[in-house]
């Protein structure tokens, strides 16, 4: 099944309506960490509001597009089978649940339409900030907030200045829910290398400690615990990269790129579970250089995350 741009724009506009309705449910809730139910461990949680919001979204989307598949963060989707080739909704009703239960505003409704395993429409909405990111394949990506530019949508990127390597980069990170084992160890190793001053740096740069072998001395590491919002900030050019998908379409339509979180794969599948998002930049060669520098930081380290068996990439 293929879609023309006007069809994708109509879907995008409907997703915005649904996202804002879901946002009203989120902002009217009164969550607390005591209400959270543990899924995998105490860092991987779900609330009654997550489930209620997902039910609302599923009801709206299935009623309007009954022939499309639905994959929700809180649904019983079999991740081992991956996302199929047909039109599929990919929904995270509350991206940033831990922020939500602690009263932090970095919380988003994340809605995507994936066709032939390619994200073609994406809407990410933060109801607490009333901040909207949206995109349709072939029609660009936009940012909209009532308090900025008279509330008018602004085409992304907001910033596409040249990339100057990791030393000058604001890097988005996420610790994930694994807090032991190889995945956690790799995260800590990469984060430490990104943050540390290089061994050859002067004492004025590294505080007199001599630096760390391979240290990149990145300008900033930011962890918001809301992946969709972070990828959108990369798309906007407000952050340079994010190591860790509705946000995928926003990123690529803005001119950013999404590559594998492991070195070597420039075209990861939608359900890869490990990603490196890099912001739009002129010249685009800066994106390639930043990716290769980041991959060098990872080196031989590998996480156990990856796509389902047999899922190699997009079908179109």
Could you list some keywords that capture this structure?
316 residues; alpha+beta; seven-stranded mixed beta sheet; five-stranded mixed beta sheet; 8 helices; 31% helix
Q: Can you describe this structure?
A:
Pfam families: Inositol_P. Belongs to the inositol monophosphatase superfamily. It comes from Lasiodiplodia hormozganensis. This is Protein QA-X. Keywords: Hydrolase, Magnesium, Metal-binding. With 316 residues, this protein is α+β, with helices and mostly antiparallel strands. The strands form three sheets. The chain has a seven-stranded mixed β-sheet with strand order 3-4-5-6-7-8-9, with helices on both faces. It has a five-stranded mixed β-sheet with strand order 11-10-12-14-13, with helices on both faces. Strands 1-2 form a two-stranded antiparallel sheet. Strand 7 and strand 8 form a beta hairpin. Helix 1 packs antiparallel against helix 2. The model has no long low-confidence stretch (mean pLDDT 91).
The gist of it:
With about 325 residues, the chain is α+β, with helices and mostly antiparallel strands. The protein has helices at about 5-30, 50-65, 95-100, 180-195, 205, 225-235, 245-255, 285-300; strands at about 35-40, 45, 70, 90-95, 110-115, 120-125, 130-135, 140-145, 155, 170, 220, 240-245, 255-260, 275-280. Its cofactor is Mg(2+).
- Helix and strand sequence: HEEHEEHEEEEEEHHEHEHEEH
The total of helices stands at 8
Overall pLDDT score: 91
The end-to-end span amounts to 11 Å
Q: How much helicity do the residues have?
A: 25-40%
Based on helices, strands and strand pairing, what is the structural class? Answer: alpha+beta
- Largest sheet, order of strands side by side? 3-4-5-6-7-8-9
Q: Strand-residue fraction?
A: 15-25%
Question: Which regions have little confidence, pLDDT < 50, spanning 5+ residues?
Answer: none
Largest sheet: 7 strands, mixed
Number of strands: 14
Broad shape:
globular
Radius of gyration: 19 Å
Organism: Lasiodiplodia hormozganensis
Cofactor: Mg(2+)
InterPro entries: Inositol_monoP_metal-BS (IPR020583), Inositol_monophosphatase-like (IPR000760)
Protein name: Protein QA-X
